[in-house]
């Protein structure tokens, strides 16, 4: 080989001409490395075929047939055309870029002034066809920076739709698209080691006017390069917006997200809450002032009447005028008397024949035997119970938009593949600097990776199964081998070959010889993942062994500014086919994932493991939820046990230590628990019979809810019985019937309100909420029915035992101490009557209470508008779960989010030019085509949540059809099978006519919480709707044609788009029956119904407000608890409201005191103290969902229900409650309206 130091440079002279043969210095090139012959001679005049070929390949050199000269032969033109074709495959989307690229190489190869532009530096003898000639194997090319920069600018934004990356990234070697500049771009083109350049070309970029160091006679080429928004002389159109920023239309800035609601320069909701607070306080104070003044004047006008009470104390009582006794008052009391009478008869019947209700004794099988049969029949349905564990089935309605879109996508493209992932880091290992021969000093983090080859015996396949049996193999789906499986990892840059990883070779670059190894190859591939051959002497491909590229953002994470080798994490992704759940292959895939998790967990425990990693399998979420549910079952059992112990102890009378075994109510408490259990079993069994599946949420929440409702009724009934004294001549059974008649209407009021509330809640579109409401409604109804039958009979038996002084559990043992014949008020009733009620209802205390609760209500309204909507995935995992580490790594290291597909439905004609142009993004396409609009969205990722534009098969198809592209096109049928198919063949279009579905894949930005996922879904739908409207304007498009975005997470996060109005609807449907039932059962008492409703609303609003303060997000699980809150609030409120409404005390305050003492004590013991111990136990659960949405939220509901029911409501009733009517008997005598009502 000779190195030339001097050469002549004159206009009109060539430096080389004609082809001498293959470059002996190069091997394994993509195209034949044919080098020209060294020949300093005049440029040739071109005519005929020679001129025509030059005009085709290098039209910029055409000066007319009589005046065109060039320095290249026809063979050279053919070789140049073949070489340019490869570049055109990625640059043809932008004709001006392709033109500029061809312009450069036409000048260096064919320019008539070639000797003034290039300087030959290396020649050597080459033998071809028996002739030895001196060939050029290296030269310098001198270009002006103006031409070089303009050419580079025209090409730098040209994209490759299939990858979403830039074409320049594949043509700039190690630097990639981001670090590429004109010099580096030309250096890559002139580097013979890239497998494309036939010889070494040293491009020298010279600034205009600079001549220092230039060989004598050399004039840097300074032709005019086309801008990307210009048409080409040969008629090529200007580049598309996606490939050329200058071609983009002036787009208005995208609308910013709505700014926060502001008033007077501050938070608008805060201002409204403060105004509402002031108005309510002023209205209340005004009402109190006017009421006080009015009462004084009325007392002065009507006078007062003195009388004596039963203790001969003077009392003051206002005379009742008959005109004050309204129709509603009469209706109210008559309704209560009617209900009480019916329940009294029923209770006496149940108490008289207890054995017929409880067991089959003496062949007296009557009421309870029938109820037991009904419960048994219902419960038998449990044999066919189905537990829904699939999150999609739980939270996404079958007719929801996201579910329909998922079904459409899966039916046309198969379900999204199952993802199994490892994220590896080495925080304890220091990185090192690798001084690469080609790439210079590079930071290396020192991470390693491990290939997993898992084999296991499959009973379903009856053979040994491995990854190839279930893997996602896009290029060979029918019969994949292990190397066909889509496994994305760093080893794939080496085709998972240890030989390739260990390969080393000495390489000389710019006179320096060094060893290159896997690090050089890795650096190159991370920046050029689409390369089939690196630029090192290793000559290895960067493509994965399954035939696709591994993009850097999917292989490494935790890097900055595309410094991939300094990444903090390596990512390994194993993709499996997502088979249907009833498929045999689905079980095999699940088994593979189980083995995968076992291997990873065992490797993690290995002491020799010197790096940390997070991991997950597709089944992990469901597995972890099921695992934690099973582990927390003992917590729930302990919770129920604590509640049972409390009920058994609290129901006892304990009049004497000697009678403690007689007066205890262990069996009554156990019976009450069994009644609750039977009602839940009956409800679950009934719905199992009719095919409505259950869920873990139902198993956890419904028993708790029914226990709260049932325990309250039990306490009210039992405490009322214990406080009652049997009348002379009255049997024990008649007494129990009379007591039931007193309290059963109140129990009916609450139970019916709750049951109707939950039945209406089943109108929800969310499957989990709907099934919960159905199960809860029937369970509450069954609980009331069993309490009216079995529990009444049980209490009657227990009363007989207690009357006979027999010990509980040891019925044969009697005690001598007789039962006192006086009511047993316990300690709570006297305490509340003597101390609590008078203090609470003191005139100053009442004002303070009203002001405090008005403030709480207004503050909660403000907080309610600031509650966070959503449920982050991490909360579904138990504490200590490996999935929590995975989510932490995922959010920290991933540079892109989940893929999003823009799916087109049938009804669009892709075969027409207009139809293709409305979709594609290459040259000639509509500036507002589908893919262009997606591209515009990625320019504002902070608003659109789109990071990488959509790849486009339409653009690839257009490139494939382009005659300038030499892509492989073969006939697949007919007489020419296997032969080349020209782009002019019409039949290539036949398959495109009205495709039933197609899709275009883009990537979201990293989404780290449910708010991001929800916002991304909303923005993607807005974009898809805009695209749909545009494409419907194309002639021949069906009116119902649609484009929709599909992401695998949409079915989970769609609910948050509508969960606020959905929640308002559900809660409103629950509040409505509480008002209606309360009014009806109190004889159309609208005022009591409204006050009852107002208090429940305040409990719900305050609950949401405290949720905001305690960091509890609003979601479907929270909504279930809020629906439950309405039911529990009814227990705290409705009993009190009814007790106040039926009181015959003369004043509001006295009636409120009576209701607070008598009913308030029962509510406190039955609802609050029943719930609180069980709720506190849940604080020890491992599952974060249980801790947050069952412990915290139920604690909030119970405490707020308690303070509203026993603090706020009595005060509210004392101010605004129904007026007292004096004598109950007098009202009964006025029966006209009552008769009319019934």
How much beta, percentage-wise? 5-15%
Q: Average pLDDT across residues?
A: 80
Biggest pleated-sheet summary: 5 strands, antiparallel
What is Rg?
A: 42 Å
Tally of extended strands? 31
For the termini, the CA-CA separation is: 119 Å
Q: How many helical elements?
A: 39
Uncertain spans: 304-320, 355-365, 446-452, 986-993, 1221-1238
Structural class: alpha+beta
Portion in helices: 40-55%
State the shape: elongated
Secondary structure topology:
Layout: E1 2-3, E2 13-22, E3 34-42, E4 44-45, H1 48-57, E5 69-70, H2 74-91, H3 95-110, H4 114-117, E6 118-128, E7 131-144, H5 145-155, E8 159-160, E9 165-166, H6 182-189, E10 200-206, E11 262-263, E12 266-267, H7 268-302, E13 305-308, E14 314-317, H8 327-352, H9 354-358, H10 367-379, E15 387-388, H11 391-395, H12 401-413, E16 418-425, E17 432-436, E18 440-444, E19 455-458, E20 463-466, H13 467-470, E21 487-488, H14 498-502, E22 505-509, E23 512-516, H15 518-527, H16 552-555, E24 556-557, E25 569-576, H17 584-605, E26 612-616, H18 620-650, H19 660-663, H20 666-689, E27 694-695, H21 696-723, H22 732-761, H23 767-803, H24 828-840, H25 843-864, H26 882-893, E28 899-905, H27 913-917, H28 930-938, H29 941-944, E29 946-948, H30 953-961, E30 997-1004, H31 1010-1031, E31 1043-1046, H32 1050-1053, H33 1055-1081, H34 1086-1109, H35 1116-1142, H36 1148-1177, H37 1184-1216, H38 1224-1229, H39 1232-1237
Parallel strand pairs: 7-10, 15-27
Antiparallel strand pairs: 1-6, 2-3, 4-5, 6-7, 8-9, 11-12, 13-14, 16-25, 16-26, 17-18, 19-20, 21-25, 22-23, 24-25, 28-30, 28-31, 29-30
